[in-house]
Design a protein that fits this description.
With 163 residues, this protein is an alpha+beta fold. It has helices at residues 2-24, 40-57, 61-68, 84-95, and strands at residues 74-75, 101-110, 113-122, 127-138, 141-151. It contains four helices and five strands; from the N terminus they run H-H-H-E-H-E-E-E-E. A hairpin with a 2-residue loop joins strand 2 (101-110) and strand 3. Helix 2 runs antiparallel to helix 3 (61-68). The radius of gyration is 22 Å and the shape is globular.
Length: 163
């Protein structure tokens, strides 16, 4: 009898959890320009990490932009125009560089900004760069970009230069 009572209590608790869960757990929109609150920095960090995975690891600028840059995109890079489509075109061409590899990837977000620092290298086209991208956030969406790039020559006096 005790087993039956315990079983019924367990079933009722499980059923209550299943039916109550939608009211308790509200999933966050991936890119929410109106996002605010005490966990905004953590949500921006999660967005930056996923953006970096899509852009640097998967090498898919279109997917990264579709997920995190839905509208206005202000570009401060002197080699690219502002706007989503010009940026996607520029970055898709760049990502097609033969032998392109990203490494030394570090990320940080805070105060409405996200920073990505990484190495972009391709021995096939003599490309070796240390790059710092700064992304401006609007909620959990990104809408502005600045970058600093420095060529790595391989003859630095400082053995820990760049990273």
């Amino acid at each position: 009898m005790r087993f039956l009572a315990a079983f019924l209590v367990a079933v009722l608790c499980w059923a209550t959890t299943i039916t109550a869960a939608p009211a308790i757990i509200k999933p966050f929109k991936v890119c929410d320009p109106d996002a605010k609150g005490p966990f905004l920095r953590q949500r921006q960090q999660a967005a930056l990490e996923d953006f970096a995975k899509l852009f640097l690891i998967d090498k898919n600028p279109r997917a990264a932009f579709d997920k995190y840059i839905p509208g206005e995109y202000i570009q401060h890079n002197p080699d690219a125009l502002s706007g989503r489509e010009p940026a996607i075109t520029y970055l898709t061409t760049l990502q097609a560089t033969p032998g392109l590899v990203y490494s030394n990837i570090t990320l940080f977000s805070g105060s409405g900004l996200g920073l990505l620092h990484y190495r972009r290298k391709s021995v096939q086209v003599d490309m070796d760069m240390a790059i710092m991208d700064r992304m401006g956030f609007k909620g959990t969406c990104m809408n502005e970009h600045w970058d600093v790039r420095e060529r790595i020559w391989g003859n630095s006096t400082n053995p820990i230069a760049y990273f």
